[in-house]
Write a structure and sequence with these properties.
Elements lengths: L6 H17 L7 H13 L4 H17 L4 H13 L3 H11 L12 H15 L3 H17 L22 H14 L3 H16 L11 H18 L3
Helix pairs in contact: 2-3, 2-4, 3-4, 4-5, 4-6, 5-6, 6-7, 6-8, 7-8, 8-9, 8-10, 9-10
Amino acid sequence: MIRMKKTPIIVLALGIVLSINSCRKHYEATEQDMADYGWLLFEKAVSKSDYTDSKEWFLKSVNEDTTYMDGYNGLGWSFGKLTDIDSSIYFFETGLRFSPSIYDTTNIRFELLAGLCFANNAKGLDVAAIAWGDSLIEDGLSSGLATIKWVFTHNNSNSKNKINHLDLRVTMAASNFAISEFSKSVNHIQSILTELSGSTTFNPDVNLVSGRAELAVWIDSLSTILSNQ
């Protein structure tokens, strides 16, 4: 019986396999991939340790590309959730020095400005909180928006609180109140009430102690209401 030689067939098959493998590209995670995973953890966080995990991925993102704006955005929000306000402010401000990636689909600058408003208010730096909030509102108007309707694009899926422009306004109202800019504080509360109910008759006389007390009650009440919606 004649036996066929298998060696040429084996060599040919091996050559095909090697050719296919050589065509495969080695994939490495980009700074955007790392930030995206950080946001995934952030949005699904159920405990403080989850924000520590998201922070680590954002750190990897900016280590990969030190100019990646959304990586700093994620760091600012993660440190804010971890109540490390100084670090939160630092990373928000750092992010503003850079430009968004061509692949970004959200207005990252708005999120950085909003974060700075919230963080500075939390630290008691009310003048700075107002300035950053005003910057967001002015940026929105200059972008052609009749009114700023900013919404945070990475709200936590496990939380009732969906952070948006109303949270920004009540935060600014609180900071305005803290530095005795009562009329400006009233304007923010009126804007919130008008959006929530369609109109408002709220107009306390802030020249009177009773009017300022009424304003303070509304700021506190709306802060509670907005934190649950």
